[in-house]
Design brief:
periplasm; 10 strands; 174 residues; 2 helices; globular; transport; lipopolysaccharide binding; glycolipid transfer activity; single chain; ten-stranded antiparallel sheet; LPS_export_LptA; lipopolysaccharide transport protein A fold; alpha+beta
Length: 174
């Protein structure tokens, strides 16, 4: 009974810590959870589901690494990763979220859709604060991007910040 209460307490700590990265509640579901307080890490395995604010993520496994203040520094999802954020949808084999840098690294057969726009590559790095994205090819295939002119100037990543093109258009209309 005492071990069960500790397990519930650790789960609550993990959820609160991950919630610190978002502005509202974070819901995490998985088949199992292992929390190692001495190493500042939590391992979620089996059908991992994360829901927070406007982000939903699914994966086979997820690791959450904390700093000494129990705030998440890095989240690594592996296996059949799918991420949905507003009108952005991404699939990859691995996703790494660097909380302090506000960077998301997707790797392994990455495919990203935003509306009708599409891109694919071996690795996609999203720099949210800079409204910038890098796409790297694999040894066997090149980077592919499909975009539609009616969405010209829109960023493939909707960060809530206007792109340079949108800022220029806004300044030009004054």
């Amino acid at each position: 009974m005492h071990i069960k209460k500790l397990s519930v307490l650790f789960f609550i700590i993990v959820c609160i810590s991950v919630a610190g990265a978002a502005q509202n509640k974070v819901k995490i579901e998985s088949d199992s959870l292992k929390y190692f307080g001495n190493r500042n890490v939590s391992y979620f395995s089996g059908n991992v589901f994360v829901k927070s604010d406007n982000l939903t993520m699914h994966s086979d496994n997820m690791s959450v690494y904390f700093n000494d203040n129990r705030e998440p520094e890095k989240i690594v999802a592996q296996g059949n990763v799918s991420i949905t954020k507003q009108e952005l949808y991404a699939l990859s084999n691995k996703a790494e979220m660097l909380m302090n840098e506000n960077v998301i690294k997707l790797s392994g057969d990455v495919r990203v859709w935003q509306g009708e726009n599409y891109l694919e590559g071996q690795q996609v790095i999203i720099y949210n604060d800079e409204n910038r994205i890098e796409v790297k090819k694999s040894d066997k295939s090149r980077v592919k991007i499909i975009f539609y002119p009616d969405q010209k100037g829109k960023s493939i990543v909707n960060t809530g910040k206007p792109s340079e093109k949108e800022l220029q258009e806004k300044d030009g209309s004054r």
